[in-house]
Amino acid sequence: MGTGGSGSTCERSVDCKERAMPLDWNDVVERFKNGAELESIPGASTLTVTGADDEKIYVAHRLWKAGLSRENLEKAVMLLEEGKMTRKSGDFIDQYRTFVADEKPTTAATVLKNLGYLE
């Protein structure tokens, strides 16, 4: 595998790195440590990421606050990379709940879409 061979063009850094390391948590923490507003997937409200650390991405909605575990997000990305889960965000939600965890699946889909893993 290696680091970017000749003629390699990646529009998103995540797209390039996912081949060698499916979810680079250092990049995730760097991207979200100071918070972010994420565009929602259809049918979901705007999501605010309030921070990230070595174990979780912290998110808030107008009615609740939660954390998405690194372990579950890494498992989801591994299953995506193996072709065992769909990249279509709407269908991914049910698969995440079934194959990964019942841990804010719509929120997980929104974050993974923002990172470039879902359509």
Structural notes for this entry:
The chain has 119 residues and is of the alpha+beta class. The chain is 39% helix and 16% strand. It contains five helices and four strands, in the order H-H-E-E-E-E-H-H-H. The chain has helices spanning 13-17, 25-32, 70-81, 89-99, 105-114, and strands at 36-38, 47-52, 56-60, 65-69. Helix 4 crosses helix 5. The chain is globular, with a radius of gyration of 14 Å. The chain starts with 12 loop residues before the first helix and ends in a 5-residue tail after the last helix.
Write the layout of secondary structure elements.
Layout: H1 13-17, H2 25-32, E1 36-38, E2 47-52, E3 56-60, E4 65-69, H3 70-81, H4 89-99, H5 105-114
Antiparallel strand pairs: 1-2, 2-3, 3-4
Helix pairs in contact: 4-5
Question: What keyword list fits this structure?
Answer:
119 residues, alpha+beta, 4-stranded antiparallel β-sheet, disordered N terminus
